[in-house]
Amino acid sequence: MTLDISTKTVQKMLVDAIRDMPYISMLAINDMAFDAKDSLKKSMLAGLEIEKASLANAFRIKKAKKTNLTAVLFVNKDSWQYKALEQHYEGGDRARKGMELMLQSMGAIKKSKILIPMAKIRKRGYSDIKNALNSKAKSDYFLATKTAKKTAHLNEGIYARVNAGHKVVGIMMIRDKPNYKKRFDITSITEKVVNRRFEQHFNIAFKRAIKTR
To answer: Does 2 map to a domain?
Structure first.
Protein backbone atom coordinates (compact mmCIF):
# COMPACT_ATOMS: atom_id res chain seq x y z
CA MET A 1 0.00 0.00 0.00
CA THR A 2 1.32 3.42 -0.96
CA LEU A 3 0.40 6.51 1.00
CA ASP A 4 1.08 9.96 -0.31
CA ILE A 5 -0.18 13.52 -0.13
CA SER A 6 -0.12 16.16 -2.79
CA THR A 7 2.11 19.20 -2.56
CA LYS A 8 -0.94 21.45 -2.96
CA THR A 9 -2.59 19.85 0.07
CA VAL A 10 0.52 20.42 2.19
CA GLN A 11 0.77 24.00 0.99
CA LYS A 12 -2.89 24.62 1.85
CA MET A 13 -2.41 23.16 5.33
CA LEU A 14 0.59 25.42 5.91
CA VAL A 15 -1.25 28.50 4.65
CA ASP A 16 -4.23 27.69 6.88
CA ALA A 17 -1.95 27.17 9.87
CA ILE A 18 -0.22 30.51 9.27
CA ARG A 19 -3.59 32.25 8.84
CA ASP A 20 -4.83 30.66 12.07
CA MET A 21 -1.67 31.42 14.04
CA PRO A 22 -3.12 34.45 15.91
CA TYR A 23 -6.11 32.34 16.97
CA ILE A 24 -3.92 29.38 17.95
CA SER A 25 -1.57 31.63 19.90
CA MET A 26 -4.49 33.29 21.68
CA LEU A 27 -5.85 29.90 22.80
CA ALA A 28 -2.44 28.73 23.99
CA ILE A 29 -1.67 31.95 25.88
CA ASN A 30 -5.04 32.02 27.64
CA ASP A 31 -4.84 28.34 28.59
CA MET A 32 -1.32 28.98 29.88
CA ALA A 33 -2.56 31.92 31.97
CA PHE A 34 -5.25 29.82 33.64
CA ASP A 35 -2.73 27.02 34.22
CA ALA A 36 -0.40 29.51 35.93
CA LYS A 37 -3.30 30.89 37.98
CA ASP A 38 -4.18 27.40 39.24
CA SER A 39 -0.52 26.76 40.12
CA LEU A 40 -0.35 30.01 42.11
CA LYS A 41 -3.49 29.09 44.05
CA LYS A 42 -2.17 25.61 44.85
CA SER A 43 1.18 27.05 45.92
CA MET A 44 -0.51 29.55 48.22
CA LEU A 45 -2.85 27.00 49.82
CA ALA A 46 -0.01 24.55 50.41
CA GLY A 47 2.59 27.09 51.50
CA LEU A 48 0.34 28.87 53.98
CA GLU A 49 -1.54 25.70 55.02
CA ILE A 50 -4.86 27.40 54.27
CA GLU A 51 -7.98 25.25 54.61
CA LYS A 52 -10.40 27.82 53.14
CA ALA A 53 -9.67 27.56 49.41
CA SER A 54 -11.56 30.78 48.57
CA LEU A 55 -8.80 32.79 50.28
CA ALA A 56 -6.56 32.08 47.28
CA ASN A 57 -9.01 33.63 44.81
CA ALA A 58 -7.40 37.07 44.55
CA PHE A 59 -5.80 36.22 41.20
CA ARG A 60 -7.42 37.60 38.04
CA ILE A 61 -6.77 37.19 34.31
CA LYS A 62 -7.21 39.64 31.46
CA LYS A 63 -7.37 37.30 28.49
CA ALA A 64 -5.41 37.65 25.27
CA LYS A 65 -7.18 38.44 22.00
CA LYS A 66 -6.24 37.69 18.41
CA THR A 67 -5.39 41.35 17.99
CA ASN A 68 -3.47 41.52 21.28
CA LEU A 69 -1.59 38.33 22.06
CA THR A 70 -0.90 39.19 25.69
CA ALA A 71 -2.67 37.74 28.72
CA VAL A 72 -2.26 39.54 32.03
CA LEU A 73 -2.24 37.56 35.28
CA PHE A 74 -2.53 39.86 38.28
CA VAL A 75 -3.63 40.14 41.89
CA ASN A 76 -6.83 42.08 42.52
CA LYS A 77 -5.72 44.29 45.40
CA ASP A 78 -9.29 45.47 45.98
CA SER A 79 -10.50 41.95 46.77
CA TRP A 80 -11.12 40.80 50.34
CA GLN A 81 -8.95 37.76 49.62
CA TYR A 82 -5.93 39.96 48.96
CA LYS A 83 -6.57 42.19 51.96
CA ALA A 84 -6.90 39.16 54.25
CA LEU A 85 -3.47 37.84 53.20
CA GLU A 86 -1.73 41.03 52.09
CA GLN A 87 1.23 40.44 54.40
CA HIS A 88 2.02 37.16 52.61
CA TYR A 89 1.94 38.82 49.19
CA GLU A 90 3.99 41.86 50.14
CA GLY A 91 5.77 40.99 53.40
CA GLY A 92 6.07 43.35 56.36
CA ASP A 93 3.21 44.30 58.68
CA ARG A 94 -0.40 43.14 58.28
CA ALA A 95 -3.68 45.03 58.22
CA ARG A 96 -5.48 45.38 61.53
CA LYS A 97 -8.68 43.43 62.05
CA GLY A 98 -12.03 44.17 63.69
CA MET A 99 -11.15 43.60 67.33
CA GLU A 100 -7.82 45.40 66.97
CA LEU A 101 -9.45 48.39 65.28
CA MET A 102 -12.06 48.55 68.02
CA LEU A 103 -9.42 48.56 70.78
CA GLN A 104 -7.45 51.21 68.90
CA SER A 105 -10.53 53.43 68.71
CA MET A 106 -10.99 52.98 72.45
CA GLY A 107 -7.38 54.00 73.01
CA ALA A 108 -6.72 50.62 74.62
CA ILE A 109 -3.89 49.55 72.31
CA LYS A 110 -1.46 51.35 70.01
CA LYS A 111 -1.48 51.02 66.22
CA SER A 112 1.81 49.18 66.49
CA LYS A 113 0.16 46.35 68.44
CA ILE A 114 -1.82 43.32 67.30
CA LEU A 115 -3.92 40.61 68.96
CA ILE A 116 -2.85 36.96 68.90
CA PRO A 117 -5.62 34.39 69.63
CA MET A 118 -4.48 31.82 72.16
CA ALA A 119 -7.27 29.42 71.23
CA LYS A 120 -9.82 28.97 68.45
CA ILE A 121 -12.68 31.41 68.96
CA ARG A 122 -16.10 30.91 67.43
CA LYS A 123 -17.49 33.73 65.27
CA ARG A 124 -20.19 34.36 67.85
CA GLY A 125 -17.49 34.45 70.52
CA TYR A 126 -15.92 37.52 68.91
CA SER A 127 -19.25 39.33 69.09
CA ASP A 128 -19.62 38.44 72.77
CA ILE A 129 -16.11 39.71 73.51
CA LYS A 130 -16.69 42.99 71.64
CA ASN A 131 -19.96 43.60 73.44
CA ALA A 132 -18.36 42.86 76.81
CA LEU A 133 -15.41 45.20 76.22
CA ASN A 134 -17.72 47.98 75.07
CA SER A 135 -19.89 47.63 78.17
CA LYS A 136 -19.13 49.09 81.57
CA ALA A 137 -21.01 46.27 83.26
CA LYS A 138 -19.03 43.37 84.70
CA SER A 139 -18.82 40.45 82.29
CA ASP A 140 -16.94 37.23 81.61
CA TYR A 141 -14.39 39.10 79.48
CA PHE A 142 -12.00 41.93 80.30
CA LEU A 143 -8.98 43.74 78.89
CA ALA A 144 -5.74 43.61 80.86
CA THR A 145 -3.22 46.44 80.44
CA LYS A 146 -0.14 47.54 82.35
CA THR A 147 -1.71 50.94 83.02
CA ALA A 148 -4.66 49.46 84.91
CA LYS A 149 -3.81 48.62 88.54
CA LYS A 150 -6.19 45.66 88.74
CA THR A 151 -4.61 43.93 85.74
CA ALA A 152 -1.02 45.21 85.85
CA HIS A 153 0.19 41.80 87.07
CA LEU A 154 -1.14 40.08 83.94
CA ASN A 155 0.31 40.01 80.45
CA GLU A 156 -1.53 42.49 78.26
CA GLY A 157 -4.47 40.98 76.43
CA ILE A 158 -8.10 39.89 76.61
CA TYR A 159 -9.05 37.44 79.33
CA ALA A 160 -12.07 35.31 80.18
CA ARG A 161 -13.31 34.58 83.69
CA VAL A 162 -13.98 30.87 84.21
CA ASN A 163 -14.94 28.63 87.11
CA ALA A 164 -17.50 31.14 88.37
CA GLY A 165 -14.93 33.90 88.20
CA HIS A 166 -12.30 32.12 90.33
CA LYS A 167 -9.89 31.76 87.43
CA VAL A 168 -8.90 33.89 84.43
CA VAL A 169 -7.66 32.56 81.09
CA GLY A 170 -5.94 34.59 78.39
CA ILE A 171 -7.78 34.22 75.09
CA MET A 172 -6.14 36.96 73.01
CA MET A 173 -2.74 38.43 73.82
CA ILE A 174 -1.43 41.86 72.80
CA ARG A 175 1.86 41.66 70.89
CA ASP A 176 4.15 43.95 68.89
CA LYS A 177 3.37 44.23 65.19
CA PRO A 178 4.74 41.36 63.09
CA ASN A 179 7.22 41.54 60.23
CA TYR A 180 6.10 38.90 57.75
CA LYS A 181 8.37 37.62 55.03
CA LYS A 182 7.08 37.48 51.48
CA ARG A 183 5.96 33.86 51.31
CA PHE A 184 6.08 33.20 47.57
CA ASP A 185 7.28 34.89 44.38
CA ILE A 186 4.40 35.22 41.92
CA THR A 187 6.68 36.05 38.98
CA SER A 188 9.00 33.12 39.60
CA ILE A 189 6.17 30.58 39.95
CA THR A 190 4.47 31.85 36.79
CA GLU A 191 7.69 31.76 34.75
CA LYS A 192 8.37 28.16 35.80
CA VAL A 193 4.89 27.06 34.70
CA VAL A 194 5.23 28.87 31.35
CA ASN A 195 8.70 27.41 30.65
CA ARG A 196 7.58 23.89 31.49
CA ARG A 197 4.17 23.72 29.83
CA PHE A 198 3.71 26.37 27.16
CA GLU A 199 4.70 23.99 24.33
CA GLN A 200 2.09 21.52 25.60
CA HIS A 201 -0.61 24.21 25.60
CA PHE A 202 0.42 25.39 22.12
CA ASN A 203 0.19 21.86 20.69
CA ILE A 204 -3.27 21.38 22.20
CA ALA A 205 -4.41 24.74 20.81
CA PHE A 206 -3.05 23.84 17.35
CA LYS A 207 -5.00 20.57 17.31
CA ARG A 208 -8.17 22.36 18.43
CA ALA A 209 -7.82 24.87 15.60
CA ILE A 210 -7.27 22.11 13.00
CA LYS A 211 -10.37 20.22 14.17
CA THR A 212 -12.58 23.24 13.72
CA ARG A 213 -11.73 23.48 10.02
So the answer is: no
